Amino acid sequence: MERFDYALSRYKEYGVDAQKAIDTLKNVPISMHCWQGDDVCGFDSQDSLSGGIQTTGNYPGKATTPEELMADIDVALKLIPGKKKLNLHACYAIFDGEFADRDAIGPEHFDKWLNFAKERGMGIDFNPTFFSHPMVKDNLTLSSPDDDVRRFWIEHGKRCLEISEHFAKETGVPCVMNIWIPDGIKDVPADRYAPRKRFKESLDEILSIPYDKSLVYVTLESKVFGIGLESYTVGSAEFCMNYVNQSGITPLMDNGHYHPTEVVSDKIPSMLLFNEKIALHITRGVRWDSDHVVLFDDETREMAQEIVRNDALDRVFIATDYFDASINRISAWVTGMRNVQKALLFALLQPNDTMKAMQDSNNMTELMVLKEEMKTMPFGDVWEEFLRQDGVASDYITPIKEYEKKVLVNR
Ligand code: RNT
Ligand code: ZN
To answer: What's the predicted TM-score (pTM) here?
Structure first.
């Protein structure tokens, strides 16, 4: 308590109210991706992970049943402060009786997830799964030249819209339904236009079914390349930005999906200027991989600052998206989720108005000094206080290691 009092007074010197920052952060929902717990396997197919994404590592304890995954998510949720949402993929459908393929799934296959979320007071976000399935033909889905393939995946998209709306109605929280297709080509294509045209038409068809736009926010996620799809991706940044603009859906930027020197932090204000809402997949790209665990690093902080200083916390859907199979998967969840929240708290603790005024009056020397000063403020004490007020212990590795010993290693 004493340390927080000191932090309060230090931040006050800069005109920042640290308790207000904590109060704001408490109400910012972060959508936690279910797929960190089982290396993006899901329950509906024996196919191995495809789509140009890959998990590497073989840490013991991977969840292989819905019960295990839910139990693991529960352990993670208890160690993550603040407001959470559950982010599900269609491949996590649970079949108690008869199996239904992706073009035939319905809300009933997600009853257990819905109850799980409801019991914990969480909303649900949803993702059609356009990978790890025999109907992915030559690495193509919605952009395939094969009519049957395209029709199968269009139907999948429609089914998912219906499921998303059901989630929103049942939980009372709007559902973000994110469309990402892996479609791409390994080597230099002969036709870049036609697959994109087909993708466009497929999307039009999916979105032609009626759905309540205040309940379901459909987002579209772009990507620069996938593993084995290095030369061409159908859903490029330009494709997605234009499609979103024309159709009135919401753009989703995954910060692992751009050229290595491009930063999503710089894209956020431009996208906010032209879109009512935007969505983010927060991850950490490392060389060829777009999906390392989120750290409290410069770019994560910078993205958070672009959200906070543009007063856009209620305009940005924030979700995590990464998968690491080489470390304890629950720890990976907690570390990444906490780091997103830390970055937001750090952003909320900056004297943003003072800094903006310095920029506008071209006091760049003072601005640099102030920014550097803020880095060594007693931020950790405010973070600890946030945890304390939320009733979450600061130490999460001890309970996770205990769970690992008791449960995970015996799987
Ligand atoms: C892949 C995309 C996509 C996936 C999830 C599993 O590069 O980021 O969002 O990670 O759909
Ligand atoms: Zn993503």
So the answer is: 0.97
